[in-house]
Amino acid sequence: MTSTLVIWVTMVILLAEQGYGDLIRDLSGYRYRAVRTNRNFDQAQATCVSYGGHLAHVKSSRQQSLVVVMALDEARADYWIGCSDREVEGTWRWTDRTRLDYDSWYPGEPNNGGNQDCGALRKDWGYVYWDDQQCDRVKFFICQTDINECSSNNGGCDHNCYNTDGSYRCTCRAGYQQSGLTDCVDINECSSSPCRNGGTCRNLINSYRCDCRPGWTGVNCQTDINECSSSPCRNGGTCRNLINSYRCDCRPGWTGVNCQTDVDECSSSPCRNGGTCQNLFNAYRCDCKPGWSGVNCQSDINECDEALHDCEQTCLNTAGGFTCGCDSGFLLNPDGKTCSDINECDEAQHGCEQTCVNIVGSFNCGCGSGFVLNADGNTCSDVNECDQDLHGCQQICMNTYGGFACGCNDGFSLNDDGMSCSDTDDCVSGACDNGGTCVDGNRTFSCVCVPGFKGERCQTAPCSEDYDPPLNGGKACSVTDDATGSMFCTVYCRDDKEFAVEPAQLYTCRADGGWFADSDPVVGQSRPWPDCTGRHRPGRPHMIGEVHYFSGIDCSINMNEIISNFQHLFSQLPSSQPGGAITTELQNVDVECGGASKQIPAITWGNSVSKSASGFTVRFRVAAVTSLAPEDVTQTEQTNLIYALDDIYFEIEDKVANQQFDLNINGQQASVDTVNIGFAEFDLNCTQGQLSFQDTFEAYCLDCPPGTFHDLTTDTCEYCPVGEYQDQPIQTDCKQCPHNTWSVFPGAKEEAQCVAVCLGKDDLCSSCNHVKGQLTCKCEVGWAGSQDGLTCGVDDDQDGYPDVSLPCNDTTCKMDNCLGIPNSGQENTDGDEMGDACDDDMDNDVFNNVEDNCPLLVNVNQTDSDSDGVGDVCDNCPTDINTDQRDTDGDGVGDVCDSDADSDGIIDTQDNCPFVANVQQDDSDGDGIGDVCDNCPTVQNVDQFDLDQNSIGDACTDDTDSDADGIPNSLDNCPDIPNSQQLDTDKDGSGDLCDDDDDGDTILDDVDNCRLVPSLDNRDFDGDGVGDVCTGDFDMDGVPDADDVCPESGVIARTDFRNYQTVNLAGSSDNPQVWEFLNEGTEIVQKVNSDPGLVLGPDYFGNLDYRGTFFVNTQVDDDFVGFVFSYQSNSRFYLMSWKQAGDSSGGQAGVQLKLVNSTTGPGQDLSLALWKGVEVPGQTKLLWEDPSKVGWSYNTAYRWELKHRVDIGLIRFRLYSGSLLVVDSGDVLDASLRGGRLGVYCYSQENVIWSDLVTKCDDNSQAA
């Protein structure tokens, strides 16, 4: 029973290794499968057809040998093969109806006994012979399928691979010819020199093209171009065709290249003495002036001698006429005859270059506008208005004679006033493809693509990436939707290669361009799948055994005899010589005297008769060795090696059972007691850089491929991290990218993938992710550069512009025009390459900014009619005092002098909201204040009192706010869920966060793929989970999601603090802040040493990210800068406060996060509490402080990042100096305030800049 059990277990293991009981072998382009399932002949044939083949056709002795071996592997039943004589009795054919040219019938067969019409391999005849059997009997069967050699590496063909039955062939595309069996070479059509007349031949695929020299045309440049064909010669001229030219022969009287010009006989000026020449056809005529005669007017007439004049005083004959003269002191009158007294200025006898003023006895010279009189008193010189700042040009001044002209820099155009400039819109029609949105830049533009599309102009469609297949492997892809390009791919390894990093079962590219490995998005990789790598198979398995013998001999003196006899006994085993490429070796034979055998992991058997424990144990090792070269050892060969050891195992088992494995030692019998033989295993010696694999029938070392390294702690192949690469297999670490470059995704396999250029210092400057099938990179904190994030330079002042010009074309690649001072808008009023932020004279009008009442516009006279400190040339109300220059409608006319400040068509005296456009003039409570600007639209409050400055009138507020979002329950459209934005998309009075159907389209939000846009059909063409009507702009606010800071909120789209509110936390206006807004509201400057105060933006936020740059632009003072978030009133807000140094008044250096919850509101108590570094009951609560108490430094840029998740009460603050993280609060938990407005804060600190401000809604609640 023990032997039977061992055999059964072994067979189960073998069958499991062969794949659910089927044995598969390949031969000469076919694959054979021995199916161990009983089927009749027709069922067997149908099963084989389902595999893509048929019952085996045995047409050669090689095929016969293969099917015999396969049948012998499971010799339990007959096997059907694919021949029968059912069509014509006695005529045997294969299932493809071909006759049997080869057979192996048993003698006397086929005999058709009992309608035996189907062929089979007979078990009784060792499967060597065939027998005809009744077709309805059930048997095992052998299938044969053609191997498609073209499916792997295209069969090795350069171009086309055609699979044939049992083989394949290669062909070449048109324009190529075959070289050898697989290679294709291009046919050079230029080799016959087809181009004539000096033409240049360019070889093309299956064709050629002639580039002709000037003057020739035609396919082969064979035709001279007849330049005379257009009849260029005019006025009867004759055209002569030349090579690449022509010549006109003109008729008399005509000339010119095309005889277009009449020959002007007057050109030689034949008429003299002022005679007028009249050109005639091929002749001329002279019309003489009075006083002259002759053909050419060459003869003078003397009018004085012949009394032909009428001069009042004197006559002087002149050539061709006469002149009248006057006596001294007289001037000839305009009639040329009479005389009058001389006026030197009137008669131009003064020598003045420009103007003359007559005086008694003399005259004075003068000059016109734009000129100055020279020292000689007569001549004038041009005044250079540009050099003397007398021009008023905004950008470029060009001096002209007697004046000047204004111009503009590249990318700008001159306005109608002839002096100012406007940015030129570079977004021409069709600038972006495939529905992309064009964004204008400075002499450039960029495109924001609809989801899935990519490229500089959105020209690349989704899923168009042609990713290379795995190294040493292949891929099979299928497009599932031609309209969107969606596809799926599977990958595989060729030859004896394997994946060292486990691939997905299926890779899918969806319509939005996103790649997925199974259901996981593919991010941070150069391509979706891993590479295949080499397997190294050892060819030397072994097994260890021991046999315990009963014997009464003296073991100690007979050891050599025992070893010799055991070796001889082993050599007599037929299985010890398996043949072929495999040999076996008996090794390490050793004898231990006395005692019972030791137990090793193995199956033990032996005699069941109880015997004495005296005797000895023979221990040994058996190895199976192949003569194949290491690279030729396959899984099949390893299996055969294991089988060779199994044969020895079974034969020893059989010998023991039949008492044929006993030893005779010097005439005495030594009988087997027990036998222990371990399982066969391979000698596997993998090196570092390789993974090891071993099971019952195979073992190998697997190389970690290029792009990975062997993590010895986890014994896995891991991708090289960002910033490193590995171009060699079998490595335990990765190589650093060269200086100033960085690999931007894990798994870089070559140095060329170190593409991110980092200029300025050795550090990580860029981070990347694969998003929707596209590599998306951005410069890290402390760096700035190209929009694609692959070229980044140090940005010391953290304003988004690098310290040096970078080798890229985006606007943000240009060198910062104000190094060391944040100026995210790069404003440069005078165009002198120095940004306004560091230019003492921004408009270059000779007045420094501090004394210039129009620092951004040239005004040499500094006129200020209304004495409001703003010069007339830049004052939007030059005769009305308005220091703040507020201009609600942005029409250039300040609110104080604009009769319709909000441009809604209703004059301010009749407008119930003069500063908020409201054409309807709704006023629900009838208090004269329009609903859109009424802080209590349903309760009359003409005074609009709002003492706590929460934008809700005191008349309608209460103290109950259940969800702590800053909106009292009486006004909150979702009172139990924080929603400070109060979004109510369908205007049904129920806020979106507590409305099951936000857009009111009857489709509940949890299944609505356009939650904020009514869409009854819920169509989603690309299957990305976002409905068609809201794809690309989820909230339909007109701002693409890629540019929208809150893509799921229709009320917030961009960061802009210009519509601001100020809050003086000291409760007075004695020492207020002075705020300035730049770069379209994303940069704020506060210039004076002031009371504690805030400036707030208009928007309300819940979950958000808030980023910006701090900069103290002075060497004076050491007090507070910071920002506020979740502002709900002037008594309730979160505060990030940062002081440079501690002081004796309780001020503390370092960053602090505080909850301001004041019982008094703005005033002295709150001011003192904000100054102190400790918690003040009734005023402030200290949530977190920097234990290192690092203070800010003068003229140093710091970048902050805040995450606030109001739904879980989480706050996280980080602060960077350059790319160095200097402060990290960790996760701070506080749910006191759950939404509100954002702003910036300063206290007793002048010249503070908050630059490159970025706000973004974020609904993902998680640890920061």
TrEMBL record:
Record bears the keyword tRNA-binding: no
Gene Ontology MF terms in the entry: calcium ion binding
Disulphide bridges: C212-C221, C250-C259, C288-C297, C449-C458
Signal sequence range: 1-21
Entry superkingdom: Eukaryota
Pfam family, one: cEGF
Residues in EGF-like domain copies: 146-185, 186-222, 224-260, 262-298, 423-459
Entry keywords, A to Z: Calcium, Cell adhesion, Disulfide bond, EGF-like domain, Glycoprotein, Repeat, Signal
GO cellular component: extracellular region; plasma membrane
Region (Disordered): 880-903, 953-997
Family of the protein in this entry: Belongs to the thrombospondin family.
Family annotation (CDD domains): CLECT (cd00037), EGF_CA (cd00054)
Domain annotation C-type lectin: ranges: 27-144
Protein name (record): Uncharacterized protein LOC109468189
TSP type- repeat residues: 827-862, 886-921, 983-1018
Biological process terms in GO annotation: cell adhesion; cell morphogenesis; gliogenesis; neuron development
TSP C-terminal domain boundaries: 1058-1262
PROSITE patterns the record matches: ASX_HYDROXYL, C_TYPE_LECTIN_1, C_TYPE_LECTIN_2, EGF_1, EGF_2, EGF_3, EGF_CA, TSP3
PANTHER family, per database record: THROMBOSPONDIN, THROMBOSPONDIN, ISOFORM A
SUPFAM superfamilies the UniProt entry points to: C-type lectin-like, Concanavalin A-like lectins/glucanases, EGF/Laminin, Growth factor receptor domain, TSP type-3 repeat
